[in-house]
Amino acid sequence: MTVTEDRPRPAPASPPSAPRRAWELVRNAWRVLVSMRTALILLFLLALGAIPGALLPQRSLNEGKVADYIAEHSVLGPLFDRVGLFEVFASPWFAAIYVLLFISLVGCILPRTVEHFRVLRSEPVATPRNLARLPHHHTAEMATDVDGAAALVQGRLRRWRTVRRTEASGAVTISAERGYLREAGNLVFHLSLVGLLVGIAAGKLFGYEGQVISIADGGGGSTFCNTSTAAYDSFRAGLSADGTGLEPFCVRTESFEAHYLETGQADSFHAKVSYQTGEDLQTNTWRPYDLKVNSPLRLGGERVYLLGHGYAPRFTVTYPNGETRTDMVQFRPADATTLLSEGALRIDPPAGMYPSAEERRKNQLAIEGLFAPTALFNGTILGSSFPDLRDPAVAVDIYRGDTGLDAGKASSIFSLDPQLAADGRLVKEERVNLRPGELATLPDGTTVKLDGVEEWVSLQTSHDPAQMYVLVFALTMTAGLMVSLLVKRRRVWARLTPATATDGTPTGRTVIELGGLARTDQAGWGEEFTHLSEELVSTDGPDKSAAHSRSTQSGSTEPASQSPDPEDGRS
């Protein structure tokens, strides 16, 4: 009779708790995020996402062109607008890619930085057992004992980091390594890359940019002061900047000069400006400065750049009762080559001309059209043949009616709202071509005269508190990269054993076996190893006939699998 013993079955493993599963999910997600593969994918996505920002008009640069694109592409335009392709660099999806890439790079770089720091401080690895299997090998005899030979070798490797060890067999080994500056370069490169990323992010957080159009009329010009965001035509603040606490200064545009080649290509832009900052604001002292492209005016942490220029026609409207209104508005260049420009003016009648506000609003005037610095007419169609101010002319439509001045909503300064004409609130009264001094007469006797043209300049104030840090990190990153690419990491091992005669008795000489290995394939290491070997084995009385050598270069018939692992000291 067989008796079976009932053994308790092991209890099934309990499933991991919810906190543990959540922790494992976060850990695995973090490992995937900080992998180099993920960083490369995110970098590719960032470059791919930036393509629409280069091909499509952006609202931050030219809102009018965005509106024109949407109007011309009734299907794709609204779709692109919905996904943020007209505001690529301010869109949430682009910011998400950038932030993930930043985290991924930092997660990749910091562990590598720690590893490079450890390698920088590490000792040379132990001597492999079989030096003959290294790519470079040399064997010779030295006419001195082991201790003397070891002292000679270490003395001639004084510029190398060396470690002397004694093996169980009694042989003395010397491990030498050179090129640690390569690891220092890697360390500097990775730390500088992190600093560069942090500096760029800090600049986006705490910096700001403001753009303003300033008229250069040669008679004192127009002035803007960096005291509030209202002084700018457009203002973009960082995520942690709200436009308050700006560094106070004032800039006045005195004159502007542009020089062109005969082909119409711009040769140079030069604006004469005056500025006030610090105590000059209290004493009303203006200091001159020559503002050029890529030569900004630096005022403390702020920089004022000259971005571009254009033209501003000046019109005078004379009403039947003799009252006048003069206005000048910058026109936007529609053709960057010839500076054919477009723009619009809205003129309100003088007070008291009409009995009610409603009647006054119905008699506002609007002027919309083109300006050419060097007129080229094809019949009555105006074009421009050269960007310089040689033969200016305008081709304008003159409207009467409600121009939208009292609507209380923002409107473009470069064009009229087409809906006003479509609704009959604006009526075209005249279409004329005018040169300076010429005028057009409307049906009620009102005259519109082109008085002249002034030049305007586009100025940009930029504040980036991390700019200097970004420059320093960029320079150190480049220097570290160059060092890591140019410096060769080389290793040399020497095994010293007492030489014996055929009967086994010591001869008082030393057999030295040398092996060399470069961490990376570097041209010239074979010649350097040969020269180093000859220097190491030479003594005051070397036995040249006893020395023999073998050097195996990369690409030799010896199989690569026989090469030792230099990190573990074994072959």
Explain briefly what this protein structure is.
The protein has helices at residues 18-33, 36-55, 63-72, 76-82, 92-121, 146-156, 180-206, 280-283, 357-361, 418-422, 467-486, 525-537; strands at 136-142, 161-166, 172-178, 208-216, 223-225, 234-237, 249-260, 266-277, 287-292, 297-299, 302-318, 324-328, 332-333, 341-347, 364-372, 375-378, 381-384, 393-401, 426-434, 439-441, 447-463, 490-500, 506-518, 548-551.
Descriptive terms for the model:
571 residues; alpha+beta; seven-stranded antiparallel β-sheet; six-stranded antiparallel β-sheet; 24 strands; 29% helix; elongated; disordered C terminus
Q: How would you characterize this protein structure?
A:
With 571 residues, the chain is α+β, with helices and mostly antiparallel strands. Helix content is 29%, strand content 32%. It has helices at residues 18-33, 36-55, 63-72, 76-82, 92-121, 146-156, 180-206, 280-283, 357-361, 418-422, 467-486, 525-537, and strands at 136-142, 161-166, 172-178, 208-216, 223-225, 234-237, 249-260, 266-277, 287-292, 297-299, 302-318, 324-328, 332-333, 341-347, 364-372, 375-378, 381-384, 393-401, 426-434, 439-441, 447-463, 490-500, 506-518, 548-551. The strands form five sheets. Strands 4, 6, 10, 11, 12, 20 and 21 form a seven-stranded antiparallel beta sheet that branches. A six-stranded antiparallel beta sheet has the order 2-3-22-23-1-24, with helices on one face. Helix 2 packs antiparallel against helix 5 and helix 3 (63-72) packs across helix 4 (76-82). It is elongated. The two termini are 62 Å apart. Residues 540-571 have low confidence and may be disordered.
